[in-house]
C-alpha cells in the first residue's frame, strides 16, 4: 500500500500512527475489473501520486515478464524516493520494461503524465494496435487529461475512437 496522509483524515492518520508489527484488522474487497492481464504481449500503466501503488504490486507479480511500461506523475524528485528501490528491483528482475516520470514542480514549465503520453504516442498506439492493455490509476483530474490525449492518439494513428478500445477491454481504470 502507499497512502497519502490527509491532515484530518481518519484512515490515513490511523495507518500513519501504527507501530511496526502492530496488527490491522481488514477485509479485502476485490475489484474484478482492475487486474493485470496475463494473456497480452504489452501493458502500459499510467498513474499519478499514490495511484502507483496497485501497479507496483502487479509489476512485482509479473511472473511471465509481460512487457510493462510505467508512466508516473509526481510533484518532485523527492516524491519518487519511497518507490525507487521497488522500481530498481523490478528492472533487475525484468518485470518492468520502461519507466517514464513527469515531475510537476521540478522546473518552471510543469510537466504532467499526459505530456509524456503524447511524447510516446507511437508506443501507446502500437500497444493498442496489437491488443495490448492500458491501465490508469490515480486522480480523476489526471484520468480526464490522459483520456483526452489517448483519444487524440487513437483517432490520429489508428483511425478509431478511444471508446473502441475501451469496449474491447483494452482500457482499465481505477481513479479517485
Ligand atoms: C478506488 C480507490 C483507490 C484509492 N487508492 C488510494 C491509494 O492507493 N492511496 C491513497 O492514499 N489513497 C487512495 N484512494 C483515496 C483514499 O480513499 C482517500 O484519500 C482516503 O479514503 C482518505 O481517507 P481518510 O480517512 O484519511 O480521510 P477522511 O477522514 O475521509 O477525510 C477526507 C478529507 O476530508 C478532510 N477532513 C476530514 N475531516 C475534516 C475536518 N474535521 N475538517 C476539515 N477537513 C477534514 C481530510 O483532511 C481529507 O482531506 C483511493 C480511492 C479510491 C476510490
UniProtKB/TrEMBL annotation:
Ranges of residues in domain Oxidoreductase FAD/NAD(P)-binding: 45-146
Pfam families linked to this entry: NAD_binding_1
Gene Ontology molecular function: flavin adenine dinucleotide binding; FMN binding; NADPH-hemoprotein reductase activity
Enzyme Commission code: 1.6.2.4
Alphabetized InterPro entries for the sequence: Flavoprot_Pyr_Nucl_cyt_Rdtase, FNR_nucleotide-bd, OxRdtase_FAD/NAD-bd
Keywords: Flavoprotein
Gene3D superfamilies, A to Z: Nucleotide-binding domain of ferredoxin-NADP reductase (FNR) module
Enzymatic class: oxidoreductase
Keyword Amino-acid biosynthesis: no
Gene Ontology cellular component terms for the protein in this record: cytosol
UniProt keyword annotation of Flavoprotein present: yes
Listed name of the protein: NADPH--hemoprotein reductase
High-level lineage: Bacteria, Pseudomonadati, Bacteroidota, Flavobacteriia, Flavobacteriales
Amino acid at each position: 500500500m502507499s497512502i497519502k496522509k490527509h491532515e484530518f483524515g481518519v484512515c490515513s492518520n490511523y495507518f500513519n500512527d501504527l507501530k511496526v508489527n502492530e496488527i490491522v484488522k481488514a477485509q479485502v474487497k476485490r475489484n474484478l475489473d482492475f487486474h493485470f492481464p496475463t494473456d497480452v504481449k504489452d501493458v502500459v500503466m499510467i498513474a499519478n501520486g499514490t495511484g502507483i501503488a496497485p501497479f507496483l504490486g502487479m509489476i512485482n507479480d509479473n511472473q511471465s515478464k509481460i512487457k510493462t511500461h510505467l508512466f508516473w506523475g509526481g510533484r518532485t524528485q523527492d516524491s519518487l524516493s519511497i518507490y525507487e528501490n521497488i522500481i530498481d528491483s523490478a528492472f533487475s528482475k525484468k518485470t518492468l520494461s520502461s519507466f517514464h516520470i513527469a515531475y510537476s514542480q521540478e522546473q518552471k514549465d510543469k510537466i504532467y503524465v499526459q505530456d509524456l503520453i503524447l511524447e510516446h504516442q507511437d508506443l501507446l498506439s502500437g500497444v493498442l494496435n496489437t491488443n495490448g492493455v492500458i491501465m490508469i490509476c490515480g486522480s480523476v483530474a489526471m484520468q480526464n487529461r490522459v483520456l483526452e490525449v489517448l483519444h487524440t492518439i487513437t483517432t490520429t494513428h489508428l483511425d478509431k475512437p478511444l471508446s473502441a478500445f475501451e469496449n474491447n477491454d483494452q482500457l482499465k481504470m481505477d481513479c479517485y
